[in-house]
Amino acid sequence: MPSTAWRISGSWTQDPSLASGLSWSDLNRNRLEVCNMSKETPQTHFDFYRLAKSYEKTGRLDDALSAYAKAIELRQDYAHAWFYKAQLHQRLKQYNEALRCAQRALELQPDWTDHITKIIADCKSKI
Fold it and tell me: Do 41 and 71 belong to one domain?
């Protein structure tokens, strides 16, 4: 079961602050603050994946890469983390690492071929 902080941060779509006019960026910052202020820390691969997505949405890209890496460390066959880590490396023009992550995502999820092969082709063309 997710920690209290993650249950709170994961319920942002039902958050009454949506009605208060907060931007999506503000809401994502709030999610990070809830996690950072809590004494509980992320523990599962999915916790770190969600943290990475929040970091990415708020522009904390190095933190996002670290959180994706931790998610992968905890569950090496977690294709979502490999895929989004590949996309982020591609965005940062780190093509060798993007290619490595994309190839691993494709091994784990061959049915994602359409999405992953675009990353692979783009990276190969720029290496």
Answer: yes
pLDDT of residue 32: 59
What are the distances in angstroms from CA 91 to CA 25, 55, 85, 106? 19, 15, 10, 18
Per-residue HEC secondary structure of the chain comes to CCCHHHHHHHCHHHCHHHHHCCCHHHHHHHHHHHHHHCCCCCCCHHHHHHHHHHHHHCCCHHHHHHHHHHHHHHCCCCHHHHHHHHHHHHHCCCHHHHHHHHHHHHHHCHHHHHHHHHHHHHHHHHC
**CB-side exposure of 48: number of CA atoms within 13 Å?**
21
Please name the amino acid found at residue 54: S
Domain that holds residue 97: 78-127
Report if residue 120 sits inside a domain: yes
Could you read off the pLDDT of 24-82 as tens digits, one per residue? 666 666 565 545 534 467 789 998 998 899 889 888 899 999 999 999 999 999 999 99
pLDDT band at 11 (very low <50, low <70, confident <90, very high): very low
